[in-house]
Specification:
about 190 residues, alpha/beta, Rossmann fold, 6 helices, binds glycinamide ribonucleotide, Formyl_transf_N_sf
């Protein structure tokens, strides 16, 4: 199975996914694509010998359909079977999602359905949660929705800031996303709980 990984930032989840796809793993990373050339993950992907691409959203100035066409065409050029969104910070419309439905995964830093959207760690602390975590799910047109494929939980500790909590969750993201990918790449969409 060929996997394209979409990023916008440092790409630590991308690295965890790419590192996992070796040996007897049923998948290989064939493309790392960013919507900005400033994404630190691009250099990390190149260091790992993975093809990279940038489809910058800015020239499209609000024409989401044109941006998504360009994105789709560049992805198709690498012929992936599956897309993993890994800190890809553009909302994708139904037009794009429907072309990849059932073949696109996302990781989100909360225990969905709680805290869709941004600033999840600050919102969990603000709400007095004792537990927080991350979710890998199939992407459907509704934001941060879609069938849940796995979750990992962490405690919220006294004195936590959004940054300390984010770091604790991110460690779990790096365990959860490769575990779910391995299972999905083997044709099994049974949920994983870590
Ligand atoms: C991760 O925490 C991921 O869950 C989050 O962005 C971070 C990317 O970090 N994704 C979202 O918030 C998606 N809405 P990374 O670039 O180091 O993998």
């Amino acid at each position: 199975m060929r996997v394209a990984i979409l990023i916008s930032g440092g790409g630590s989840n991308m690295v965890a996914l790419a590192r996992s796809m070796t040996g007897d793993h049923p998948a290989r990373a064939v493309l790392v694509l960013s919507n900005t050339d400033g994404a630190g993950g691009l250099a990390r992907a190149e260091d790992m010998g993975i093809e990279t691409a940038v489809v910058d959203h800015r020239p499209y100035k609000g024409d989401r359909a044109a941006f998504e066409d360009a994105l789709h065409n560049r992805i198709v050029a690498s012929a992936p079977d599956l897309i993993c969104l890994a800190g890809f910070m553009r909302v994708l419309t139904e037009g794009f999602v429907s072309r990849w439905q059932g073949r696109m995964l996302n990781i989100h830093p909360s225990l969905l359905p709680k805290y869709r959207g941004l600033h999840t760690h600050a919102r969990a602390i603000e709400a007095g949660e004792s537990e927080h975590g991350c979710t890998v799910h199939e992407v459907t047109p509704a934001l941060d929705d879609g069938p849940i494929l796995g979750q990992a939980r962490v405690p919220v500790l006294p004195g936590d800031t959004p940054d300390t909590l984010a770091a604790r969750v991110l460690e779990q993201e790096h365990r959860l996303y490769p575990a779910v990918l391995r299972r999905v790449a083997s044709g099994d969409k049974t949920r994983i709980d870590l």
